[in-house]
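Technical note accompanying the year-one report. For the benefit of new consortium partners, we illustrate the data format agreed upon in the data management plan: each record pairs a sequence with a C-alpha cell string. No post-processing was applied to the example shown here.
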Amino acid sequence: MKKNLISIITILIIAGCTAAHKTDSAKNDRELEDLASLMTGKFSSELQSKADSTYFNISLVMTPIWAERKDGKWLYVEQAVAANAGKPYRQRVYHLQHPSKDTFTSEIYTIKDPLVFAGLQNDKMKKDKLTFDLIELKDGCTVTLKKQGDTYLGGTDADKCPSDLRGAKYATTKIILKKGMLESWDQGFDASGKQVWGAAKRGYIFMKQ
C-alpha cells in the first residue's frame, strides 16, 4: 500500500513538473517572441496600391492582448480600407504557438460584435473589455508557418477553411513574413475550385510603418 502511494505521488510530481515546464517554455519561448514581434504593429499596402491600381490601400494593425496568458501569444488584428480606417472590414484574434522546431501556428478566432472593438489598439478600455468568451475559433482555418532563414512561409491547409462569402465554399490563405513586410494572399473558391473572391495575381503586400 505504501509503495503504491509513493508511486502515485511520484507520478503526480512528474506530471506537475512537466506541465510547469510546458507553461514556462511557452512563456519564455524566444523564437515565438520573435515571430510575435514581427507581426506586431501597423502595416500598410499603400505602396502596392500606387504601383498596381487593382490593389486597395489597406491598413493592417496587429496588437498584443492577454499578456498574462501562458499558452502562447495572442494578437488582436484589424484590417480596414485606409480611407475609412475607423470602420474595419475584418477583425480577428490570432493565437500564436510554437509546436515544433521551425514550425509555428496561428489559430484564427472571430469576435462577437466586432465593431464594438474597432480601434482597440488605441483604446485601453476596449482592450480590457475583450475577453476570451467573446471569441470563437474558426475551425480548419489555422495558418501554419515554417521558418526558413529570416522568412516565415506557409498558410492554411488546402480546402479545410470554410467560407460562404460571395458564393465561396472554402477560403485559403498564403503568408510570407519577414522583417518589415507581410504578404497575405486570401482567396475564396466555390465547390468546383473556381476562385470567386480575393486577389488574382498575388497577395497584398503590407509594409510595416
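Partners are asked to follow this layout when depositing records. Confidence is low (pLDDT under 50) at residues 1-24.
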